[in-house]
Structures are given as structure tokens and as C-alpha cells.
Specification:
Layout (H helix, E strand, L loop, with lengths): L2 E7 L2 E2 L3 E2 L8 E7 L5 E7 L13 E2 L12 E3 L7 E8 L3 E8 L4
Antiparallel strand pairs: 1-9, 2-8, 3-8, 4-7, 4-9, 5-6, 5-8
Length: 105
């Protein structure tokens, strides 16, 4: 297993982190670290983010610990998705999302 991370600085969204469909299992963990004064949420999609011309629809993750967070939190992804991203709605600091996917890496 190898962690993958993405960050966002200030209000905005991070790039999508694709979930590898060729590994067995699912995402073991999603870990978020809001920056000072930041409010963040994790979003997921089921769209094919690597295909040109795809309209990507973001959905809230629906996990209380990863929605509107202002402190470090961790949770598992409760359903299949093709990618995750971090959405910072408040604050000018840098926040980080890390996920670890099950499988041999």
C-alpha cells in the first residue's frame, strides 16, 4: 500500500485523485488535515475522470467525519468511486487529503 495525497491552499478544490480499479479491495482509509482556520470536505465521483470531454459530477462523501471538518479526521470510503478530491470552503491555509488503497503496490 502506498499513500496518495493532494492539497489545496485557500478556498477551492484539489485535483481529482483517481482510485486504481485494478487493485483488490477498496480504499482502506481517507485522512484529512485541515489547515489553520480551514473548513474542508471530501468529495467523490463515479465518472471517468481520465476521459476527455467527460463532465465530472462531484458528490459529498456522506461521512460525517469528512464533511465540514475543522480538525484532523480519518474514515473509510463506504462505497465504490472512481476518484476523490478535497474541497476547502473556508480559510486561506493549506489542507491535505491522503488516501491509502488496499492492494499490492
Amino acid at each position: 500500500m502506498r499513500p496518495a495525497s493532494v492539497s489545496v491552499n485557500g478556498v477551492g478544490v484539489s485535483p481529482w485523485l483517481p482510485i486504481d480499479p485494478s487493485t483488490d479491495g477498496y480504499i482502506d482509509g481517507i485522512y484529512i488535515e485541515p489547515g489553520a482556520g480551514a473548513t474542508i470536505s471530501v468529495e467523490v465521483t463515479c465518472d471517468k475522470i481520465m476521459e476527455a470531454g467527460t463532465t465530472i459530477v462531484a458528490f459529498p462523501i456522506g461521512v460525517a467525519a469528512l464533511t465540514g471538518a475543522t480538525a484532523n479526521a480519518a474514515a473509510g470510503l463506504p462505497f465504490a468511486a472512481t476518484a476523490v478530491r478535497l474541497n476547502q470552503t473556508v480559510g486561506g491555509s493549506t489542507s491535505v487529503l491522503t488516501f491509502i488503497q488496499r492492494g499490492i503496490r
